[in-house]
Amino acid sequence: MTARTTRVLARLTADGSVQVELATGLLAPRVVRQHGTTVEIALVATGATLLGGDHLRVELSAQDGTCLVVRDVAGTVAYAGGGRISHWDNEIQVGPSARLVWHAEPLVLSDGAQVHRETHADVAGHGRLLLRDTVVLGRAGQAGGELTCRTRIWHDGRPLLAEDLVLDRHTRALPGVLGARVLDTATAAGWRPEGPPDATVLHLAGEGAMARSIVDEAHHSEIHAVWRQWADQQCASL
């Protein structure tokens, strides 16, 4: 299976401005705003995504001194694949003193969808990474498909986060596993932010933190408040 790769690279030029390199795959990156060393990118689907057998790959790189803000234009629906698995790979690089903020819109797993997703991120010393990830099990009236998710984040050459998440029909039926249809997560790497007073924040062993909310409806998630606080002041105002 050949991956269709979406690529965004932000780097400083000799005169201190930001140069952006873009490549389109199943998602098309578009420059929305640019100010100083900060650039904002929107990811736009080029067609129905994810279909069974699709292989979507996203490569994001913020090099030394840049701030890359990535936003999804809309949520992604994984459709029933007729037994074919959809793959989604994310490869993220954050250079020294760089910032990368990705506010991903929800991934909705329709009945019959099977998605394998891997996220690998490498954050250099004094770099910062902030990720928002929301998974919704099923469209309206559905139980939802299956997700196998593997996340590995390194900071300053050391492992910071290793998580394997399996949300298949068997696992979700076990007592105490999930109990709701929305899994909303904010992950910070490169610094250890505090959450709002009413939020549950897990401080990682290194410079990082994770906040997660498991709810029946996305608008009830406490991660909205966490995200606003953590994302504030990460990059110069656009």
Task: Report what the structure shows.
The structure is a single chain. This protein is 5% helix and 53% strand. It is mostly beta strands and 238 residues long. It has one domain. The strands form 2 sheets. Strands 3, 4, 6, 7, 9, 10, 12, 15, 16 and 17 form a 10-stranded mixed beta sheet that branches. Strand 3 (27-35) and strand 4 (38-45) form a beta hairpin.
Strand segment count: 17
Structural class: mainly beta
Biggest sheet overview: 10 strands, mixed
Distance between the termini: 39 Å
Number of domains: 1
Pfam families: UreD
GO molecular function: nickel cation binding
Organism: Flexivirga caeni
Protein name: Urease accessory protein
What's the SSE blueprint?
Blueprint: E1 4-12, E2 18-23, E3 27-35, E4 38-45, E5 55-62, E6 67-72, E7 76-78, E8 86-94, E9 99-103, E10 107-109, E11 114-123, E12 128-137, E13 146-155, E14 158-167, H1 169-172, E15 182-189, E16 201-203, E17 208-215, H2 223-231
Parallel strand pairs: 1-5, 4-6, 5-8, 6-9, 7-10, 8-11, 9-12, 10-12, 11-13
Antiparallel strand pairs: 1-2, 3-4, 12-15, 13-14, 15-17, 16-17
Provide a compact summary of the structure.
Helix content is 5%, strand content 53%. It has helices spanning 169-172, 223-231, and strands spanning 4-12, 18-23, 27-35, 38-45, 55-62, 67-72, 76-78, 86-94, 99-103, 107-109, 114-123, 128-137, 146-155, 158-167, 182-189, 201-203, 208-215. The strands form two sheets. Strands 3, 4, 6, 7, 9, 10, 12, 15, 16 and 17 form a ten-stranded mixed β-sheet that branches.
